[in-house]
Design goal:
It contains 14 helices and 17 strands. By secondary structure, the protein is α/β, with parallel strands linked by helices. It folds into two domains: 14-167 and 299-359, Metallo-beta-lactamase, Chain A (4-Layer Sandwich); 174-296 and 366-412, Rossmann fold. Strands 12-11-13-10-14-16-15 form a seven-stranded mixed beta sheet. The protein has a six-stranded mixed beta sheet with strand order 5-6-7-8-9-17, with helices on one face. Helix 5 (174-185) crosses helix 6 (204-214). It is globular, with a radius of gyration of 21 Å.
């Protein structure tokens, strides 16, 4: 469930990760936390392009890696002249374009989500604000951002709470998931494997670990390969020649994947309410013959979120995203357990849940049945938005149906 429209309440002239008409009507300065398309809402639309063209002083701040990614993608490279690079741990001041007496000091640090992902700290006359974007920090890493912890009290924490649900208390660390994947692959000498990803970037640790262990390049398509022109340490473990390897992560698919064992790298399937009744002893689960799922999360678990919130100890917490079963009453109840009793409580509009399903989970929701197709809703959803939304809601409905006997057998394997 999406619970943030992009406009900072304390500094409405700033929008983050949203470039829609409503943002253009209010904001003059924009930030991008990372490259995933649910955080680029409206950036590809003519409305925003016309807005910045008519107001050429507008800047879009992001990390250097994100700027490079955007300049490579056809949907966003036309805005290259408006991207400004943020340097890690280097505070700088931004003036409100329409009020010379209003400014904020911005400091950024890594978010641990994907290459180029940032947390953003804003300090100004209307309070100190921390925006995490999507993030994954293990509980023992929560103290690593000294630049944040050394600042004065955080007044409002805008935080990714995608898995803020006690039933999702723990998720496998990416290192453990990768170790399990390596153990599985090394059982087969000549078998091809297709690693089905749900976003352009975020799986670099797996690619590099597989190469380090097996000495085998990972096959990707040309666009994926050249995205990493700015990250040669990643690009050197990739290839665009599918004949050179038995490990494929090409998107959306290629001829080499037909006879491959398919492994879906995701997490949502493992966290769906109906799946919570099952205790998974391994991050790798067999769904059917030659079809597996690996629990690989780019988002923090419930325990990791709680540790981070306790460490930051903000006055108020505003979630960027929540599980859609968490309503405002339940959210504030869980916050009280963390020692945060904010008033007035934050209330979430019911309509936000539908928008969040459309814009965030289109990456990872798939049909859980054995006849799973390759028509998943991918990151370039804006090209076929209406069709994709119909497919998505059909699949969400399917997820609520009882499993057939055949599917039950597949799950029990």
């Amino acid at each position: 469930m999406c619970t943030f429209g992009g406009i900072l309440t304390e500094y409405p002239w700033i929008s983050i990760d949203s470039f829609l008409q409503t943002n253009c009507e209010v904001s003059r300065v924009f930030f991008i936390s990372h490259i995933h398309t649910d955080h680029l809402r409206g950036l590809d639309q003519s409305t925003f392009s016309q807005y910045v063209t008519n107001n050429r002083s507008i800047r879009i701040y992001c990390s250097d890696t994100t700027r490079h990614f955007l300049s490579k993608l056809s949907a966003y490279k036309h805005l290259s002249q408006f991207y400004s690079v943020l340097n890690i741990d280097q505070p700088f001041t931004i003036q409100n374009p329409v009020d010379e007496n209003s400014s904020v000091t911005v400091t950024c640090c890594g978010a641990g989500h994907c290459p180029g992902s940032l947390m953003l700290l804003f300090e100004g006359s209307h309070g100190t604000i921390l925006y995490t974007g999507d993030f994954r920090l293990y509980s023992h890493q929560s103290k690593r951002h000294r630049i944040i912890l050394s600042k004065k009290r955080i007044d409002t924490l805008y935080i990714d709470m995608t898995f803020f649900e006690p039933s999702i208390r723990q998720l496998p660390e990416r290192e453990r998931a990768c170790e399990k994947l390596i153990d599985f692959i090394q059982q087969y000498d000549n078998q091809c494997f297709y690693l089905k990803t749900s976003a352009r970037v975020g799986y670099e640790y797996i690619y590099m670990s597989l190469y380090q262990h097996f000495g085998i390049l990972i096959h990707v398509n040309s666009e994926q390969y050249h995205l990493y022109d700015c990250l040669p340490q990643v690009q050197r473990v990739l290839t665009i020649d599918g004949n050179k390897t038995r490990l494929h992560a090409c998107w959306p698919k290629c001829s080499h994947t037909k006879s491959s064992i398919k492994i879906v790298l995701s997490v949502l399937w493992f966290t769906l309410e109906q799946q919570q009744q099952r205790q998974f002893k391994s991050p790798l689960v067999q769904i059917s013959t030659d079809y597996y799922r690996l629990c690989y999360s780019l988002h923090s678990s419930y325990n990791e979120i709680c540790t981070f919130v306790k460490q930051i100890s903000p006055t108020r917490v505003h979630p960027i995203a929540l599980p859609d079963q968490i309503n405002s009453e339940r959210f504030n109840e869980l916050l009280k357990q963390l020692g945060i009793n904010q008033s007035p409580i934050i209330s979430f509009a019911p309509s936000n849940a539908q928008q969040q399903i459309k814009r965030r989970y289109h990456h990872t929701i798939e049909n859980v049945y054995n006849n799973d197709t390759d028509e998943e809703l991918e990151f370039d959803y804006h090209e076929n938005r209406k069709t994709n939304e119909k497919q998505l809601f059909k699949r969400i409905s399917n997820l609520q149906l009882p499993l057939t006997k055949k599917c039950k057998k597949d799950y029990e394997k």
